[in-house]
Design a protein that fits this description.
It is built from 11 helices and 17 strands. It has helices at residues 19-27, 70-83, 101-113, 155-169, 216-224, 271-285, 301-313, 329-342, 365-376, 382-395, 426-440; strands spanning 8-12, 45-51, 54-60, 88-94, 117-122, 145-146, 182-183, 189-190, 205-209, 242-248, 251-257, 288-294, 316-322, 351-353, 403-410, 415-420, 448-453.
């Protein structure tokens, strides 16, 4: 079954009732950040799931808060929007806390949609706690299904009920697919998330990385054309990675919005440290890293460390200097010089000056990604490579050594092994790298040069 035709099960409820724990239990592994504090999940996160041979999509949502601050209101609104696409809602409550006003408010919102719902009484770790689940009958959602998401108790029975209901609903192929159809900037359209795609057919993945509060989520939302990540002027709003497949005129791209990465000393144990791990994992599996810099601050030591991390991963990079419209003309050159000095680890990465909030300059991001990806995956025929190496040495030969021939051993990034008669100095290798970029049209992608001498070293 095509992923876009699979029914969508939305996990909903107030904050800190165990929604993400239930999602992880159904998925069979940790896909959502879990922490014993309210408000950890802020963005809807959609994954693929299966039970008894029946595939479906599962969405974890942020919790409803009847009365809260501006960020709480945004999280609640995004959770409500997710219901419009649902085929079934699992409404989660906490038997340890009991029925609250936020439970009642969230339940009224769910019931107004008319979407089929099952009441999930979570944290029923043993039979002694089962009677507490019946308190929630007053929500008008039918009998509760007692489960313990952490321990797995009752989850199989709940999934049997989910599959039974989905088989009765039988959504028509080609019908609405919720967040899968988004109109985006300059012809971009957000489609299904990347989960479940054939590994060899995966489109290039692009990780948005940077310090907290530099505007990554605003840029992400601008690129995909919908407020998919919660944007708020509070550092650390994004707690998890969010993958979105976006169709562009030049092909598909997977954008990965990540949590802001702080210095280790400022990263608390628990949810925030786990978010950083997830962000680093996203970087390792990405083809391109969009390193977002705050133009009003300039390149910081932490930006430098992130650039170093990108360089170590071997991922291609595009530097996006955000909030450029807030920088005075007199200081712009100084800011760019500082970026060039601090971000040497990403070498010749293109630097784009944009304003994510207004959209100015954002149209240049996707073409830059496409050029970078093309070079990152580029494979050079052996004959072309060796003709280039011959021309390079004719223009300037190495002292006391000669490159006999070269081969490209790998892509992602392009990796060349040079077979030489002796040791090649680093200065000469930098010259060879620069000339290979120019002669083979490799652009700004990372290159790896390995040298083997006649002695096999």
């Amino acid at each position: 079954m095509p992923r876009s035709h699979r029914p969508l099960v939305v996990v909903a409820g107030r904050p800190n009732v165990g929604k993400s724990s239930l999602v992880n239990r159904i998925a069979g592994h940790r896909v959502a950040v879990v922490e014993e504090s309210p408000g950890v999940t802020r963005d809807p996160k959609e994954i693929d799931a299966e039970w008894g041979g029946t595939p479906f999509r599962l969405m974890d949502t942020g919790g409803w808060v009847a009365r809260g601050d501006a960020l709480d209101a945004k999280v609640s609104r995004r959770a409500e929007e997710s219901l419009a696409a649902a085929d079934l809602v699992l409404f989660v409550v906490d038997v340890n806390v009991g029925l609250t006003e936020d439970d009642r408010a969230a339940a009224r919102t769910v019931l107004r949609t008319g979407v089929p719902v099952r009441l999930v009484a979570n944290k029923v770790d043993d039979t002694a706690r089962e009677p507490a689940a019946w308190e929630f009958l007053s929500l008008g959602m039918g009998d509760p299904w007692p489960v313990s998401a952490i321990h797995g108790r009752g989850s199989g029975d709940l999934l049997d009920e989910v599959v039974r209901l989905l088989s009765e609903l039988s959504p028509a192929p080609g019908g609405p697919t919720g967040l899968d159809e988004l109109t985006a900037l300059d012809g971009l359209t957000a489609l299904d998330g990347p989960a479940g795609l054939d590994e060899h057919a995966r489109p290039p993945s692009v990780a948005l990385v940077g310090r907290p509060n530099v505007g990554k989520s605003t840029l992400f939302n601008r690129l995909i054309g919908q407020e998919r990540s919660i944007v708020h002027d509070l550092p650390g709003t994004t707690r998890d990675t969010i993958d979105t497949l976006v169709s562009t005129p030049d092909g598909d791209l997977v954008f990965i919005d990540t949590a802001g990465m702080r210095r280790p000393a400022r990263t608390e144990r628990g949810v925030e440290s786990y978010s950083v791990i997830r962000a680093l994992d996203a970087l390792d599996r990405a083809d391109v890293a969009l390193l977002v810099i705050d133009a009003t601050v300039g390149a910081t030591h932490q930006d430098q460390r992130l650039a170093e991390r990108i360089g170590v991963s071997g991922t291609a990079a595009v530097v996006v200097v955000n909030k450029w419209d807030l920088v005075g003309t007199a200081t712009r050159e100084e800011i760019l010089e500082g970026i060039g000095e601090r971000l040497a680890f990403v070498g010749m990465a293109p630097v784009l000056k944009v304003s994510a909030s207004s959209g100015r300059g954002v149209h240049r991001v996707v073409p830059a990604i496409r050029d970078t990806v093309s070079a990152y995956h580029h494979r050079v025929p052996t004959g072309v490579l060796n003709r280039a190496l011959k021309a390079i040495q004719e223009a300037q030969s190495a002292p006391r050594a000669r490159i006999r021939y070269g081969v490209q051993g790998a892509i992602d990034p392009p990796t060349f092994t040079l077979f030489a008669t002796g040791r090649l100095p680093q200065t000469y290798l930098r010259y060879v790298e620069r000339r290979l970029r120019e002669d083979l049209d490799l652009g700004t992608t990372p290159l790896k040069l390995r040298v083997r001498t006649s002695g096999g070293r």
